[in-house]
UniProtKB/TrEMBL annotation:
One of its GO terms (biological process) is purine nucleobase metabolic process. This is 2-oxo-4-hydroxy-4-carboxy-5-ureidoimidazoline decarboxylase. Residues 11-167 form the Oxo-4-hydroxy-4-carboxy-5-ureidoimidazoline decarboxylase domain. It comes from Glaciecola punicea ACAM 611. Its EC number is 4.1.1.97. One of its GO terms (molecular function) is 2-oxo-4-hydroxy-4-carboxy-5-ureidoimidazoline decarboxylase activity.
Length: 177
């Protein structure tokens, strides 16, 4: 979808249109807009976002882990093969993760593997809030955090990513994150 739509149009969309419009707000997790559709109408985009966050918050640990595992590795195999979603491609490119030196690529590959081995899901960060150096620093800081703390951190980052993605498709929404 190239043109932004307003919340009124989204509220009046069919269930299929609603889900299609919001399908990639949460990476490969259309179950979230599917569940939130039943809460319409939304007074604002922020109201919609809060409802989506509540669905994730109330999800089972298995659903949360499935959501986290749906995210790609930073500068990982999906980026190399060109199979990232459009949103992920733009986000990773905005932080220059598509232009890493060989040394940086070797380090991020190693960090990705260590992180997945430790936590069982990819490292997730809202790259729009960071430059390349900041991303590497956060990666190094979070890699050895306790599992439960890291699940919580990753879910918070997923929520921030959703904020930016909503702002990209809906009129009148400026994220404060």
């Amino acid at each position: 979808m190239t043109d932004k739509i307003d919340i009124h149009t989204l509220n009046n969309a069919t269930q299929a249109e609603f889900i299609e419009t919001l399908a990639e707000i949460y990476e490969h997790s259309s179950w979230i807009p599917e569940k939130v559709w039943h809460s319409r109408p939304f007074l604002s985009v922020d109201n919609l976002h809060q409802a989506m966050l509540k669905i994730v918050e109330n999800a089972s640990i298995e659903e949360k882990l499935t959501l986290l595992r749906a995210h790609p590795q930073l500068a990982g195999k999906e980026a190399k093969s060109g199979s990232l979603t459009t949103a992920s491609t733009q986000e990773q490119s905005s932080a220059n993760l598509n232009a890493l030196s060989k040394k940086e690529m070797d380090e991020i590959t190693s960090l990705n593997q260590q992180y997945i081995d430790t936590h069982g899901f990819p490292f997730i960060i809202a790259v729009k809030n960071h430059d390349k150096a900041g991303i590497f620093n956060e990666f190094r800081k979070r890699i050895n955090k306790p599992y439960s703390e890291e699940v919580y951190s990753a879910i918070l980052q997923v929520g921030l990513i959703a904020t930016f993605r909503l702002a990209g498709i809906l009129k009148g929404y400026e994220p404060s994150a």
